[in-house]
């Protein structure tokens, strides 16, 4: 299983979900690793994926490009006056893909986050040619964000593997939305739900051999 994980927004739990998935795949017997091609800000996402893979992949392959500014990669590259080395990203992905049975690649922010002026997360996913799974933060506004992201992914010409619902912090006025988001989205789009993740869930059970 190889997947590119994107999200309906930043902060919807892509790293949390990706790490759980890597751990579950490894527990099932697959040599799975995670990859965060670009980190902006701290490097905690990449370190979490490295730990989920039990350290079998080098941190600099898991995260070949690290910018210290917490912003989009394009913005961070402008602030830091440095270019983003996409060749480094491609080479790291090629190594991981060749050495391991499964690679779970976590994108940066949402689908249309710019990496350079004319190269977006959507382009990176298309170049890697992996099925795309969309993490939906289950909160008020999820329906709109999910439908927009699904449409954007499909229009990019890549395979959309399905949705992953992640329970995020939500206020008491969001209870109706969080209880019905999945069922409403299922009536509007024909796309499988790969799994749901409860808040603070520590283990993922996958129906694979």
Topology:
Layout: E1 3-7, H1 14-27, E2 32-35, E3 38-40, H2 44-52, H3 59-62, E4 65-67, H4 73-79, H5 86-99, E5 102-110, E6 114-116, E7 119-120, H6 121-128, E8 132-138, H7 142-155, E9 160-167, H8 175-188, E10 193-197
Parallel strand pairs: 1-5, 1-8, 2-5, 3-4, 8-9, 9-10
Antiparallel strand pairs: 6-7
Overview features:
single chain, 209 residues, alpha/beta, Rossmann fold, 6-stranded parallel β-sheet, two-stranded parallel sheet, 8 helices, 40% helix
As a percent range, the share of strand residues is: 15-25%
Number of domains in the coordinates? 1
Helix content range? 40-55%
Secondary-structure element string: EHEEHHEHHEEEHEHEHE
The largest sheet is: 6 strands, parallel
CATH class category: Alpha Beta
Number of strands: 10
Please mark out the parts with pLDDT under 50 across 5 or more consecutive residues, or reply none.
Answer: none
Provide the residue-averaged pLDDT: 94
Integer-rounded radius of gyration: 16 Å
Structural class call reads alpha/beta
CATH topology heading: Rossmann fold
The CATH homologous superfamily: P-loop containing nucleotide triphosphate hydrolases
Overview of this structure, please?
- The chain is of the alpha/beta class.
- It has a single domain (3-197), classed as P-loop containing nucleotide triphosphate hydrolases (Rossmann fold, 3-Layer(aba) Sandwich).
- The chain is built from 8 helices and 10 strands.
- It has helices at residues 14-27, 44-52, 59-62, 73-79, 86-99, 121-128, 142-155, 175-188; strands at 3-7, 32-35, 38-40, 65-67, 102-110, 114-116, 119-120, 132-138, 160-167, 193-197.
- Helix 1 (14-27) runs parallel beside helix 2 (44-52) and helix 7 packs parallel to helix 8.
- It is globular, with a radius of gyration of 16 Å.
- The mean pLDDT is 94.
């Amino acid at each position: 299983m190889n997947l590119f994980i994107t999200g309906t927004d930043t902060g919807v739990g892509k790293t949390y979900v990706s790490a759980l998935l890597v751990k579950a795949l490894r527990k099932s017997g697959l040599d799975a690793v995670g990859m965060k091609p670009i980190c902006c800000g701290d490097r905690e996402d990449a370190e979490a994926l490295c730990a989920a893979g039990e350290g079998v992949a080098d941190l600099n392959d898991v995260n070949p490009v690290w910018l210290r500014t917490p912003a989009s990669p394009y913005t961070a590259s402008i602030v830091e006056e440095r270019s983003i080395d996409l060749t480094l990203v491609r080479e790291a992905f090629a190594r991981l893909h060749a050495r391991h049975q499964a690679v779970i690649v976590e994108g940066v922010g949402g689908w249309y986050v710019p990496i350079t002026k004319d190269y977006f997360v959507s382009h990176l996913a298309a170049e890697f040619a992996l099925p795309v799974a969309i993490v939906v933060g289950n909160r008020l506004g999820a329906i709109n964000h999910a439908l927009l992201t699904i449409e954007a992914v499909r229009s990019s010409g890549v395979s959309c593997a399905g949705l992953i619902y992640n329970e995020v912090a939500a206020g008491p006025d969001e209870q109706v939305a969080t209880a019905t988001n999945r069922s409403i989205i299922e009536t509007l789009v024909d796309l499988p739900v790969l799994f749901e993740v409860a808040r603070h869930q520590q283990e993922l059970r996958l129906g694979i051999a």
